[in-house]
Amino acid sequence: TMRLALAALLAHSLFAQSTALLTGTVEDPTGAMIAQANLSAIEQRTSLRFTTTSDESGRFSFPRLPVGNYVIECQLQGFRRFVSQPIRLDADQTRQAQIVLQIGDTAESI
Question: Which of 40, 45, 25 is nearest to 88 (CA)?
Answer without folding.
Answer: 45
